[in-house]
Design goal:
Layout: H1 14-17, H2 25-41, H3 59-81, H4 93-100, H5 107-126, H6 130-134, E1 136-139, E2 142-145, H7 146-167
Antiparallel strand pairs: 1-2
Helix pairs in contact: 2-5, 2-7, 3-4, 3-5, 3-7
Length: 169
């Protein structure tokens, strides 16, 4: 799939990567940005802080989770592309969501931040060479490539979009 080798992604990330149909990361990031802006703007206001079950995240929480995760994934891709061999730790997404207080923010503020982060991700990936994309590093105790991270960003977002459609709307 997408010619990725098993040493280019953390094993659980294949669940995300297999959702991606775009072969070109940059094209996928650009197209997905527009699709997701439209998708999030179509969500009714009364659903933005809805939880389908006690202890689950709201749509605002999910949107800020996507922003935080993309920042972390992109940072990893940058470090790997720049030949930084430092092993990069994982992160506890639930702790991030609790600390982020997304439900105290306006939805438009979250969308604005999403756009800014995605544009920064696009800028990074449009300036990585094929050689950069194939460079390997370590993240979450696994070998990963900048390319694998790019596909993970795309698939992670699709995964959460599917959850929103299935459980929130």
């Amino acid at each position: 799939m997408k010619n990725l080798q098993t040493n280019e992604y953390v094993p659980y990330q294949m669940n995300y990567i297999k959702l991606v149909s775009d072969q070109n990361i940059l094209k996928g990031l650009i197209n997905q940005k527009e699709e997701m802006i439209h998708f999030f703007k179509s969500i009714p206001v009364f659903k933005q802080e809805y939880k389908y079950e006690e202890g689950k995240w709201t749509i605002k929480d999910l949107l800020l989770h996507l922003i935080d995760a993309e920042r972390i994934f992109t940072y990893r891709a940058l470090r790997i592309a720049r030949n930084d061999t430092t092993a990069l730790p994982g992160f506890e997404e639930n702790d991030y969501v609790i600390s982020a207080n997304a439900n105290e923010r306006e939805f438009e503020s979250l969308l604005k931040e999403y756009i800014i982060v995605r544009e920064a991700t696009i800028s990074l990936f449009e300036n990585l060479s094929e050689t950069d994309l194939l460079k390997l590093g370590t993240a979450s105790n696994a070998s990963v490539s900048a390319r694998g991270i790019g596909y993970c960003i795309l698939g992670h977002e699709l995964h959460h979009k599917n959850i929103i459609i299935e459980r929130y709307l």
